[in-house]
Amino acid sequence: MKCLVSLPEALWVLLTFVSCLSIVAATDYFERLDLTPLPLGSLLASFEFRSNESLEAYASQDFRYFPRSLGQVLQHAGTKELHLRFTTGRWDTETWGARPWDGTKEGATGVELWAWIESDTEQEAMRKWLTLNQGLSGLFCASMNFIDETRTTKPSLSFQRTGDHRNASLHLLHGVLPGKAGVASLLDGHKVFDASWQSMSVDVRPRCVSGQNCLVEIDQTIDMVLNIARAKRPREDPIPRPVQPYELICDETKPYHSQDTCYPIDALETPAWSLKDVFGRPAAGACPLAEEGGPEAKSLCLNIPHSQGVWIGAGGFEVRSPPGEAEKRCYQMIAGEPFDFDMPKTSVRTHKQIELEEELITAERTMTGHGAAKGGMRTVFTNPSATEPVNLVLFESLPWFLRPFMHTLKAQIVESEFPFEWEIIKDLYYRPAVDRRRGTQIEVVLSIPPASVVMVTYDFDKAILRYTEYPPDANRGFIVAPAVVRILDKADASGNAKAIYLRTTSLLLALPTPDFSMPYNVIILTSTVMALAFGSIFNILIRRFVAFDEVPENKIGKLVKSARLRVATLKEKITGTKADKTE
Amino acid sequence: MCGVIVGYLFGLGYLKFLAPPERILRWIEGSSLSNIRTSPRLLKVPPYVSLLCFLGGIIWILLLPLDEYSRRTYISENALLPGQVHTYFHGTEQNIFRAYKHEVADVLEVQEHIQPDGSKAYMQATPQHRNKKIRELFANSGIKSAVQPFKYTVGGVEYEGENVYGIVHAPRGDGTESIVIVAPIKNFEGQMNTNGVTLLLTLARYFSRWSLWSKDIILLVTPNTSTGPQAWIDAYLSQHDPETIGSLSLKSGAIQGVICIDYPFPHRFHALHISYDGINGQLPNLDLINTATQISMGQLGIPTLLQSQQHYAKAEHQHHYKNRLKVLGHGMTNQAIGHSTGAHSVFMPYHIDAITLTAVGEGWEDEMAFGRVIESLTRSINNLLEKLHQSFFFYLLLQNNRFVSIGTYLPSAMAVGAGFSIMAIYLWLKSGYEQREEADVPVREATERDAATEDKVEAALADSNLTNAQLLESPSNGGQRLTKKKEWKSIDRPLVIPLTLVAGLYLTSLVPVALLVTAPHSKLLARAGSLSTVLLMIPFGLAFALGANRSLMDGSFFSSPQSSESANGAPRKNTLVFSDLSPPSDPKIRISQFQAIVKSLSLLVLGLQLTVLATLNFSLSMFLGVLCTPLAFAGYYRDSKMRANASLIAITLFNPFVAANAATMAAKLAGYYNDNVGMKDVLRLWLQNVSFGWNVWGSWGVLVGVFCVWIPAWTVATMGAVSSFVIDEDGQLPRKIEKVKEITKDNLTDVKKATVRRNSPGPVRKRKD
């Protein structure tokens, strides 16, 4: 628990890796912030920090742009490629559109880690994997040491190496630690703490340019969706108290509108905002590490239509995207000069909104059924495209106490405007669970026909845990990690294969939970029963049954007998004398 | 270890614990079990013990409202922290409430329109229009919403509707848990819940501004309390039939708590009424009710009421015995009926804790105060880390801050159940013995008997050492002296027919249930009428049939007619039961034995059913137990006219059909229904409710209780009671009971002879000689 409390600080430590302190070659460092206003008063802020280190320097531990602590952990664990994700909240596809970075920079709720580890045997790979987890756990202070064997899978279809590798014997390991170990405040604690969704990623991968000149690249991103109205609240008083009557934004066209009756229309408006409002402070000017000219130097971009006006401060100048591309504007900041801009109030009714990119597919995973014995999993895929089918891999890593029945795995089209027969399940990779050793791993290659809703279902049984295996909050239920969906066969603008990922929400699995005071009651009861039953049986067993006159007299008995006799004779004497006297 | 050590000391005799006095042990040793079984004095005791159990059970319930037997409520789950947060639902939120109320009232309530020609027209928005407006108001607060159409068909009547619901996603939450707030458009009494729906929408807007939610908040507006919530929760858990009930397009995580808002009038209110009874008598965790009470009374100073207390108990008299008993009675009645008592009820079968808060009375609390109660309650549930599990799920409430827990109230139902079991065991024992006066011992006759009979007699004698010994003691010189000792002999129990009869009755008891719940509503009353006629006829038919076919009762049904012994007048052993015992010699005893066995089996099943039911639905078990009490005693009495008559009266009075009519009349007299609603209408309404409850909510209590528990037991008891009038020696209808007695007296000597002949210890004595 202590770890969770200090998590923000640990992450802050990591982020200082990218702070602009030393003067170095500009090409080795890149940073950028993209701001995209989203509907209903939200704002997506995507930070990206990227730096390189040559492979030679990395191998000789000559770290300049690479965090030393992380580099040493990676080298110790023989890790060639690392992807670490901390995510909290859920991406609201319906309102916010497609995910940032095509979902490649986000993980499941909690911590997600996958890495390629160099080793000769699988045992060694697992050992190194655990070492890596322990090391990262200490570094990030994020309880990653709980990613044990039962939470580790070896995905065969869902994850691909993004780096360039030369070594053949690499083992891919994927671990998910669902739950409470999410990231906390990152930039300005209070502001980010209020974000509706937040994801942080660390990617380390080797990259080779022209085959020889190899680099180790570390790419860190932080994406968050802020609610502007919430973020603008003063830090001293973040309570959303009812506003004063004059602050209400009312629809005055309503016939009943009066001084004490107000039909609010504020939710449709995005309030005015500036960097200071949203992040608590203006941008501190360009980073001296970054490039000073060219497209990469414009480190702050705003994705809004050109028609919208923005008041910019003195610390930077604006460059608009050329016509034809998605409309956006970027700012080149001046080193040492604070930069800020003022975004005026906008309304859905009056202002043109930036068109949100639509998600290629939406996935929703829920549990069906009730009760403590069995249940079902249901994943619904919706393909909004009228023409394009979507091929995808559904990757599920289930805890061992959730036992799926593979014969019940079914995919069916529930709604479709697509008139033809369609084979939905193309391929299946399944590794069954071993109790208390490893979880189930399911990877299904699916093809979703255009304009259709496909439902993938299977039933499962819930195992009964040993009573020491329950966590302290046993009645909460157990979190089942989100499913990962990888969309296949998609190419970017230049024709290269593009990875698109999305993740479902995590689920809460209610297992049969004992009444934990019961064991103590049972112990007390059994002890009592044992005392009584054992006692009476023992009593009878050790007894020898003999006739009364056969009982030999023991010494004490003799003594008592003689004592009694003496007492009796004494009594007789006394009473006798007494009687004599009275007579 | 502790147990072993204590046991060791105990075994060595160093510890003496619960050791009964030597004298008592001796007594138990000295009096053998067979003595108890055959002691005439002890055999008189069980009916009184049983009666004591019944009375004890009822008195126990009546004691519960006393302070000594109930406990004060307390919050068991520390995470709830009821009333520990500031509530901010006030100020300009009321301005918004007023505006929303205009919007909602427009579509919910009947609107008066003035036509161009000056005449007034009354119009009400269609459900589609209504839902569109509610979705518009959700959207205005930036909340995603969806609709769910549903249709139930029960008894040929279609119940259609459409639910609207919105979800406030918890910022930073990932949708693993949720809280549901429900506002039915029409409340349980059928009143328009305009204020409640408005409050829900205003709260939705208010809640979406807060960032502290750890659970998603689902806001559900259903058209009614009976079908809407059921369709929604079924679909939420994917337990629905997608043909008739729409699937939900928006979903969230596991539901941790449900609060239903009911504010069915425009004026200010005085108190909040908490309804908590679920389907089949299931209850929400007591912590939820306590939290609501504590927040309402402690934090906001609004009194809370339970079980329609507002109609019979003033606030200052709530702690009076009479009022507590009334709350208890209301609660138990609701639990026994097991029907929905509001929108919250349908969540209980899925182990989701839910309550309805209803504004009642006229006072000075306004809708904002109600809103603050909901706000604080939602915050408390939001605090939960685990599902509500700390506090009680089995309890009876007496007052808003007093309850009785299961450990205290369960013994009463168990005692009533035990009463039937005791009677069953008693009748079973009684049916296995025959009391007879030993007559003279005709030696010569016995010597003529064949070897096979001798063996049998020996076997019979071996079973009764007492008889043997006594007879050996009696003078043995072949004299004609009578040994006047009364004694008990083990006799064979013919079981095939009683078992078949009782099993048949209980197994077929589901048939009327199936017939009732599948009946179309238009024919429900007629079908119930014909069903009750048939069910009423069954015990009479059985009694007459058995009276006419005596062989069924005396066990001779299975014996072959060629048997030489049956020709002799002495009944043969039952060939189907492998026993060394012989059936009773006296045909009258055989009839009463048959009746006792049937009764015993039926009471055994009844006792078991009630005990099991007590753990599932305590109140139902208790009510059924009390209603069945006379059935434990009513039955076949061949030699007591008074008892036979009393039985007949008891089974007539405590009869499901009479009870149904009496209850209808009582409800009518109590003024629950309008004057223009006839008894028949009330009965039809009830039957419709029962059928609806079975088909929609899966509420089985009343139907199973009446048809599978009460009626079979009643049928058996009635059969016995009628049999005492219709059965005599010859299977003819006697005019008077006395006549039966005379006949039996006349036949007594013959019977005795037969008995003695068969059981004479002649051979034994002969050998001795």
TrEMBL record, chain A:
InterPro entries referenced in this protein's UniProt entry, alphabetically: PIG-T
Residues making up the signal peptide according to the UniProt record: 1-26
Record Pfam families: Gpi16
Highest taxon above the source species: Eukaryota
Transmembrane segments: 522-542
Assigned keywords, A-Z: Membrane, Signal, Transmembrane, Transmembrane helix
Protein name, entry field: Subunit of the glycosylphosphatidylinositol transamidase complex-like protein
